[in-house]
């Protein structure tokens, strides 16, 4: 299916507030651009504080009734949303590919991934159970019940515009919360399309509210929610500096926070690993979405005894990757999201080469393909002094570093402020448990490159944030516990 065949009724160019599609309060708009061509797809509202406050007003009013809707009734609505999303998988996948740039197969795969969270939390809505606590004295009953936190502000990134919306909004709805949402300025169309389907599924007015804003006006929108005591929770996926800002600004109203922030994931290949499996695992984890994921390996450590063999196998696989737009069904790597992303990737590669790294494959832009393309790249001789070891590259670049022993590589893997994901390959069962427990991350992949699943808790430690998304733990982040004690019952 060509990505220009996106269903027109799914392409919305308005905010959604209190069940109404409307323009920005001040009538401003900004362009949503196709990263493969630089062409404008459509213009959407460039919202400000007034729009954000209107969304919060609607969510606050709707919360009073939505929280009282029986869990089974909420679950049925969420499941209808899931069914509608899956029924439009091709069109939504095409829309993702067009505004985000990922190949069409990945775009359609992301829709299925997003739907898995909607379905999961639709089922979990009926399982928000409390506790009966044994009383220490006669005549007393003690209970712990779970209640929705209230209005939730969801701020989502551009790299997975469907999955991140689903992973935040679905548990909010399941728990009885209402939502105000600001999708990423680069990819708002998928979010708006998903909300249009939620409306069709029967989500009442005011329960979900979405405002779009340019990069310049995003702080104005978010600050309105940060200052509003009725907004009781922030759920954010994005950079660590922004996450820390949200945490500081939330202190005055003591909002609950879920922060899924930056990563610097190590990928370790031990000498006892199955090298072919390790190469395939690295390809799956690194080149998904062109390396533009928060959990993709950023530092690849290979034990010296197998380094050259692994590098050769990897270079052959990476060199065979097809880079191109989503309109080409053979494309495996799409464009980067924008020029800023390309500039960062280019800077990282140039810095590594200047400091002694060697380019095995790739290493440059691909202007003949389009404006935002970078060749999938393998570097050898990388070390901790290089920018690609200290910052998220967020692109299709694999820097290889040799190591000698387990203690050395675990220390190197942990020598970062970040702690989101880590990967390693080994066939030694004793080493597997030693290393899995020693790595300072919230997620560890052992002989596995594809980590995420709706039933698993997703999140990090250290500067990668706190809180979890997905799983029963992800639902708990939208609830608080109330203790009820009743006496004089004897």
UniProtKB/TrEMBL annotation:
> What residue stretches are annotated with the Aldehyde dehydrogenase domain?
21-484
Annotated active site? 260
Which chain positions lie within coiled-coil regions? Answer: none
**SUPFAM superfamilies hit by this protein:** ALDH-like
**Keywords, sorted A to Z:** Oxidoreductase
| NCBIfam families per record | SSADH
Q: What is this protein called?
A: NAD-dependent succinate-semialdehyde dehydrogenase
Per the UniProt record, the lineage of the source organism begins with: Bacteria, Pseudomonadati, Pseudomonadota, Betaproteobacteria, Burkholderiales
């Amino acid at each position: 299916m060509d990505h220009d065949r996106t269903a027109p009724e799914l392409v919305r160019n308005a905010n959604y507030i209190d069940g109404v599609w409307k323009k920005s309060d001040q009538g401003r708009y900004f362009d949503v651009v196709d990263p493969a061509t630089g062409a404008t797809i459509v213009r959407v509202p460039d919202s400000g504080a007034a729009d954000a406050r209107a969304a919060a007003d609607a969510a606050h009013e709707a919360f009073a009734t939505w929280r009282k809707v029986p869990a089974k009734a909420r679950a049925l609505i969420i499941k209808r949303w899931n069914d509608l999303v899956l029924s439009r998988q091709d069109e939504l996948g095409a829309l993702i590919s067009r505004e985000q740039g990922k190949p069409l197969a990945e775009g359609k795969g992301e829709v299925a991934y997003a739907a898995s969270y909607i379905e999961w939390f639709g089922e979990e809505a009926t399982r928000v159970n409390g506790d009966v606590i044994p009383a220490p004295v006669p005549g007393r009953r003690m209970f712990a019940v779970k209640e929705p936190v209230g209005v939730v502000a969801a701020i989502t990134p551009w790299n997975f515009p469907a999955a991140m919306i689903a992973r935040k909004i679905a548990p909010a709805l399941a728990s009885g919360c209402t939502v105000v949402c600001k999708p990423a300025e680069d990819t708002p169309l998928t979010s708006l399309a998903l909300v249009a389907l939620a409306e069709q599924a029967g989500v009442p007015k005011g329960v979900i509210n979405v405002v779009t804003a340019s990069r310049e006006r995003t702080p104005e929108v978010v600050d309105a929610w940060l200052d509003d005591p009725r907004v009781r929770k922030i759920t954010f996926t994005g950079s660590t500096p922004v996450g820390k800002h949200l945490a500081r600004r939330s202190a005055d109203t003591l909002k609950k926070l879920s922060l899924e922030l930056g990563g610097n994931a190590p990928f370790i290949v031990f000498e006892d690993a199955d090298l072919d499996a390790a190469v395939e695992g690295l390809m799956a984890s690194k080149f998904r979405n062109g390396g533009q994921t928060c959990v993709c390996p950023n530092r690849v450590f290979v034990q010296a005894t197998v380094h050259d063999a692994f590098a050769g196998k990897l270079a052959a696989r990476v060199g065979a990757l097809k880079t191109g737009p989503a309109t080409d069904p053979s494309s495996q790597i799409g464009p980067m999201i924008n020029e800023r992303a390309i500039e960062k990737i280019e800077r990282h590669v140039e810095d590594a080469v200047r400091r002694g790294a060697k380019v095995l494959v790739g290493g440059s832009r691909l202007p003949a393909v389009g404006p935002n393309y970078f060749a999938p790249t393998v570097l050898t001789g990388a070390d901790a002094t290089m920018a690609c070891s200290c910052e998220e590259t967020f692109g299709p670049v694999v820097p290889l570093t040799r190591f000698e022993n387990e203690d050395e590589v675990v220390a190197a893997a942990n020598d970062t402020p970040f702690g989101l994901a880590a990967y390693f390959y080994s066939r030694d069962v004793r080493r597997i448990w030693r290393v899995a427990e020693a790595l300072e991350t919230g997620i560890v992949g052992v002989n596995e490159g594809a980590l995420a699943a709706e039933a698993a808790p997703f999140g990090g430690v250290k500067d990668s944030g706190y809180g979890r998304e997905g799983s029963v733990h992800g639902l708990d982040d939208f609830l608080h516990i109330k203790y009820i004690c009743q006496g004089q019952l004897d």
